[in-house]
Amino acid sequence: MSASQTSAPSSPRPAGPDGAASPRRLLEKLSPVSGARLGDFPVADEAEVRAAVARARAAFPDWRDTPLAGRIEVLGRVKQVLAEQGEHYARKISEDTGKPTFEATMMEIGAVPLLLDYMLRRAPVLLRRQKVSTPIVLPGKSGFIEHFPRGVIGIISPWNFPFQLAVVPVLSALIGGNTVVLKQSEITPIVAGVVEDLFRRIGLPAGVVEIVHGDGSTGAALTRAEVDMLFFTGSVATGRKVMAAAAQRPIPVELELGGKDAMIVCADANLERAAEAAVWGGLVNCGQACVSVERIFVVDAIHDRFVEKVREKVSRVTVGGPDEQADMGPLTSSAQLGIVERHVNAAVAAGAKVVFGGEKLQRPGQFFAPTLLTGVTPEMEIFREETFGPVLPVIRVRDEDEAVRLANASEFGLAGSVWTQDIDKGLRLASRMECGQVSVNDVIQSVGHPALPFGGVRSSGIGRYHGDAGILAFMNTRGIMVDRGFLNSEPLWFPYAGKVSHGFELLKGLTTRSLGSLVKGFLGLAKKRARPK
Ligand code: NAD
pTM to 2 decimals? Predict the structure, then answer.
């Protein structure tokens, strides 16, 4: 629990049917900008979580059976609500997280209509029954594939992009006919209320989206409840627990976890653009982005020139709260501030050089200076572990091959970027990076490309969403084979007597792709098909 989320005395909970009021645990929310108290927020217990899951379960059959066009109509209303409430929501997101209101507008709220439009357009194509080709050894048959919803989806979301990372998975689950129980981060309870407001306003039938508020205990209760799938975004440590809980039932689980994203700057890069990108990519959302710039590999030939450009640009980044129109806000979580300080101090002790910043700012709130480090090496914690803060660690490399090798020498594999004016080379390097998304001459914005799948490898997670994958992630798949049913029996069915040699002939046809053997074997079997009367 961070300083922005400390325990407060319990408050009375509404009386139950027996008239007894049980105490409800509350969490106190402090402003990451000023440290001021912003309110107390309730924690749902196991019974409340189970009740929410039961309501989502009861709502499932009707929502599943609502024609897709009807679901599309309801979910499309999200855009209308965001058009009306977007500015208000963005200010609430900034109040809760401390992030600049421009970032809240573009990267939290703006991402939703972009990704939603894609879903609304693709769902009718992806979710209709599709005919597949049938081999000649299955004459008279047709094959179809169709998708059907998994049921009640438990979605658990983090605090760094608390709006987008809750709303997009929920919409992705709903479009295919699932119902959802959502548990958002306790570190951003104001945004949790905003998300609840959004789903209330679009007029979903009761129980289709149930929102439970609370901390890790509420999330853990959801992982133990009778849900049909868990979709988790957050840290590796919690992801392990979620997966272990899912294994007990067992149910499918998607994990969207941390990263240590590499940026590879080649000698032929547009250095001006690459330096701008390093600064924005590493400092956007105060560095608290899963897809980010966490390690910058710069080839020796241009290292010093590049570092000087980055230093000059970092020095111009303004820091402050949302009201100050600054480029960069505070860290949202005070626990994260401690991790950033530890990584920077340990790197410096091990020989890294602070070119700019390097310390907490002397002002109220959770501010850390935009920081540029050079001389970072693979032995350092800051090279290996997710920092999730406003730090740009530069690693000098001999050439691009060394950069790719070191970029891949990581527990994580979420995203990365390659910087070169030779696009073919950029694509070749991108294909060698062991991660789920790579940009050539761009950074982070690939997350907003609605057709691209998103997700990690290794400890960065399991599964993909966004794009077509985002709709199908929440669906079960069913194969259907149809025979018109004219024949009374089939070659494969009983009796077997007299069929072995024909079977061998058919096998020869299957293995050698000999049409003659296939036909001969098949006709032989067909003759033996029916039991003698
Ligand atoms: P976290 O794991 O601490 O918490 C995430 C959510 O899990 C919260 O809602 C929390 O209350 C809940 N939770 C905590 N304990 C739980 C338990 N035992 N069972 C179930 N739920 C539990 O993560 P965080 O600090 O909120 O988020 C930061 C992390 O998320 C970073 O590592 C970041 O890289 C990662 N992240 C990944 C992506 C992605 O898409 N890959 C996106 C954003 C953030």
Answer: 0.95
Tell me which amino acid residue 533 is. K
Q: Among this protein's residues, is 256 annotated catalytic? A: yes
Q: What is the pLDDT of residue 4?
A: 38
**DSSP per residue, 52-63:** HHHHHHHHHHHH
Active site residue 290: yes
Low-confidence ranges of the chain (pLDDT < 70): 1-22, 529-533
Best mutation site among 45, 155, 161, 185 for ligand 1, i.e. most ligand atoms within 8 A of its Cβ? Answer: 185
Atom of ligand 1 nearest to the CA of 184: 9
Of the residues 28, 186, 256, 386, only one is catalytic, namely 256
Q: Which residues pair with 26 in a beta bridge?
A: 8, 42
pLDDT value at position 531? Answer: 56
242-247 long-range contacts (CB < 8 A, ≥24 apart) are 242/156, 243/462, 245/220
Looking at residue 417, what is its pLDDT? Answer: 98
Select which of 266, 286, 290, 435 is catalytic.
290
Write down the pLDDT at residue 44: 98
The residue nearest atom 30 of ligand 1, judged by CA position, is 234
